[in-house]
Amino acid sequence: MASETMIQNAKAFLQQESPDSKLNLYDHMCSVMHKILENRTPNSVDLLESLSQEVKTNKFAPPCDPSSDVRPASLEVELANVQNKLFEKPSEDAEPEPEDEVEMPLPDLMDTAHYFEQAGLGLGREETFRIFLALKNLVDTHTLQSVRFWGKIQGTEKNYIVAEVEYREGGEEEQEGEEEEGEESREEETDEAKEGDEDNLPTPDYKPPPVIPKEETGTGCNKKTYFVCNEPGTEWTKLPPVTPAQIVCARQIKKFFSGNLEAAVISYPPFPGTEINYLRAQIARISAGTHISPVDYYKFEEDDEETVTVKEGTRSSKMSSSNLPEFRN
User: Fold this and answer.
1) CA within 20 to 30 Å of 119's CA: 19, 48, 226, 270, which one?
2) CA angle, 57 as apex, 53 and 63 as ends, to 5°?
3) Residue 166 near residue 287 (C-beta atoms within 8 A)
């Protein structure tokens, strides 16, 4: 006679779930027996297979109602709904722009794209026009002096559309809050180091080299400000200023962009920051490496007002492009 343990083992075996149908034999047989006893089906042994198939069919549930016209929106539809706002006309209640308004800081991107198209380059007219509308939206939301479409960087998940801008005087937001937070964190680290020195442990004589400060906004590698977005119509994100340490490390590593600004940059040597800092460092490197100075456009002029006396008696000079032919950007 079967013991209770054998019955429990047999029940557990029948309750094993199938990886394909996500059903188990125990529940299925219970449903079949319940259907036979409820309907009092005659000749049940001859109809067992058909009854089993009928029970399985009734348990099938489609992901959505076939009779319904509602379908989940695809990624293309969601993106189209976002970009639809770019083509909306301004409301009639909006105040008209005064005639004394400054010139449009955004150049004619479609005209520039036409010349690239003649050489077989570019992103296509449709995408270029959507980028132009996105840049126009950036101009309307910030006080900018100049705006330029810097380029497009492809990523493994999403792409980056990069805009290079210059703020008007007093238009750029100061980032004193971030710098103060960084200084506070450094002070906390020094306090912790002082607490550790109280244990009278031997300390190493090595001193790390001093950290090279970043260039001020509007000078050097931070002369321009950059905004990025994944698709035209999505929100623009301002990239932080770049530091010398990030540029040095960016030269030593090779890393694919993912399209997520908050993604970690896992590399050796370790990169000081996330993908938003790595993107800003590579933009600075590309901008510096592709800068063009036409022949005879810049000339050195002696500055009579400011002279620097050295051992050989040389004088300082400055570069000027005055009274020279204009070159198109």
Assistant:
1) 226
2) 155
3) no
Beta bridge partners of 300: 319
- Backbone dihedral angles phi then psi of residue 3, each to the nearest 5 degrees: -85, 170
What's the pLDDT tens digit per position in 201-229?
A: 788 888 888 888 888 888 888 999 999 99
Using CA atoms, how far apart are residues 224 and 215, in angstroms rounded to an integer?
A: 12
Establish how many alpha carbons lie within 13 A of residue 199's alpha carbon, considering only the half-sphere containing its beta carbon.
7
pLDDT in tens, 250-275: 999 999 999 999 999 999 999 999 99
- 181-218 in b/e burial notation, b at 16+ Cβ within 10 A? eeeeeeeeeeeeeeeeeeeeeeeeeeeeeeeeebeeee
Q: Does residue 182 sit in helix, strand or coil? A: helix
Helical residues (DSSP H) of the chain, grouped into ranges: 4-14, 25-39, 48-59, 75-83, 109-118, 125-141, 176-197, 244-252, 275-289
Nearest-angstrom CA–CA distance, 272 and 263: 13
Structure tokens at 22: 């996500």
pTM: 0.62
Provide the phi-psi class of 234: left if phi over 0, else alpha when psi is between -120 and 50, else beta: beta
